[in-house]
Amino acid sequence: MSPSSSDPSPNPFTEQSSGEVSSLRRTLEPESMDSQLEVDEYLAMGHDQVNQAFVSDLIGGGPVGPRVIDLGCGTAAIPVLLCQQDSDAHVTGIDSSIEMLEAARIEIELGGVTGRIHLEHADCKTLDGYGAGIADTVISNTVLHHLAEPQQMIAAAIRILRPGGRLFLRDLFRPKNSEAIEQLVDSHARAESDYAKQLLRQSLHAALTAHEIREILASFEVPGDAVQLTSDRHWTIDWTLPV
Question: When you count CB atoms within 10 A of the terminal residue's CB, does the N or C end of the chain come out lower?
C-alpha cells in the first residue's frame, strides 16, 4: 500500500530532502515522443520493475475501477499489467503520440487483454470532449514532468473523476543537485544505453519537487498529505475526490 497520513509505519523516503527542495532550476524536456526511433528506444528500456510497482501500489492502496483512464498511457504497459491483475478493470488509454499508441496496440494484443483496453488520441492537458465524472479512477505515470504547466492536466484529471473516485498519479521528483541526479542515473540506468541515461537525466531535471506539486494541488483543495515520496526518485499522489 502506498504510504498515507493514516499509515503508522514510517516512510523511509520522507527523510530525503531531495524530494522536497532542490537547488536546480526546472528544465523542461519535449512534451511527447513523436518519432518511431524514440518509441523503439523507449520500448528497449527496462521499465518492468517500475511499472509493476505502480500497479501493485495502485491495487494495494484502495478501490481501482472498473472505469480507469490512463493519461499519457504510452505503450500501454501499465494498463496491460492492470488488466492482467485486476479482472474487473477496463482502461481507456489516452496519449498525444500516434507512434506510442501504435506500439500500445501491439502490446495489448501480446498481453492478452484485447477488448479491455481502449486507446484514444487526445491532449491530456485539456481532455476536450471528455465529460465530467466519467472515471472511477484516473491514473498517470511520469507524464507531469513533461508539461510546462502540469496544473492543466491535474485540473482535467479531477474534472473527469466521479465523486468518490480515485486519483493516482506518480512522477519523478527533481533531486537536490546535479550530483544526486548522476547518482540516480548510475543506480537505475547503468546497464541502459546512452540514450536511456540521457533521457533519465533530462527527466529528473524537468521533474517537480514534492513541495512544488503540493503547492499546485493546494489550488484544487487537495491536501498536501495526498503526496508521498514512494521511492528514491518518485512521488505519488493518491487521493479520493470527496462525494
Answer: C
Rounded to 10 degrees, what is the CA torsion of 109, 115, 116, 119? Answer: 70
Which position has the grid cell 507512434? 99
Q: What are the pLDDT digits (tens) for 157-193?
A: 999 999 999 999 999 999 999 999 999 999 999 999 9
Q: Give, in order, the Cα–Cα distances in Å from 211 to each of 9, 18, 150, 173, 225.
A: 22, 10, 14, 10, 11
9-to-23, 190, 225, 237, 238 alpha-carbon distances in Å? 30, 32, 15, 18, 17
The angle subtended at Cα 61 by Cα 59 and Cα 64, nearest 5°, is: 50
pTM given for the model? 0.90
Contact call for residues 184 and 197 (beta carbons, < 8 A): no
Work out whether the CA dihedral 222, 214, 132, 168 comes out positive or negative: negative
Q: pLDDT tens-digit profile of 194-214?
A: 999 999 999 999 999 999 999
Residue type, 123: D
Q: Are strands 67-71 and 90-95 parallel, antiparallel or unpaired?
A: parallel
